[in-house]
């Protein structure tokens, strides 16, 4: 489908965010590329003069001069190519990171039975901490944050508990909920059907209110943000584990997202809530307004 008039495609958004991370990269690439091209042409000319010097003759340039020019041009070309390749590889790496961040921004957060918003709508006001794993781990990690909840909320932190869909406890809970729903439908002659389809995967009913244009309200900035379409969250988390060099067999992980949607830190085990509180400034602080209060990695 074509983008709406005035809108940006996903590729354009990725390119813009990638350029924003290194605003002078394009200029450097243009300059290094031009200089490398000039040095390459000069090297071809110098090699021709060196051949003349080796052959000798009345018009042949001095051999020492040709060798000196060859060494200088070769060194300059090697340095420029190195700088150019480094920038190109850096751009490729940044594009991969930005692409993953854009994929994260499209993941849904459930705000009601028939209402959900993509995570991008929380940018600038919420620092999500994704806690993913087995149900027992997720609930234990969220409970461990309770002593710090007030200070975490002042820093815009919200918890996104992602319980894996292959967790036996999650499947059992979904089965019980489905049986209860069926029983309720039988007693109520089918009224209220469809709620059981939400299940452990956190899917939303067809036609639910989903979109980027809907405004985020103060009530939406909850302490606990429930994920929608959990399978998509799981897929993103698995990719994050691979990107961050975490062992794939380690199921229980956490990821902290910045206000601008970038990933600040991720690791296995329970989030270090005390360190997160110490490292992140409050939302209304000058540091947050100027730098997003990135702080050191945890």
From TrEMBL:
Keywords: Membrane, Transmembrane, Transmembrane helix. The keyword Transmembrane helix applies. Residues 185-221 are annotated as: Disordered. Residues 189-199 have a biased composition (Gly residues). InterPro entries: LPA1-like. It holds the Pfam family DUF3493. The chain crosses the membrane at residues 26-47, 67-85. This is Uncharacterized protein. It comes from Monoraphidium neglectum. The lineage of its organism: Eukaryota, Viridiplantae, Chlorophyta, core chlorophytes, Chlorophyceae.
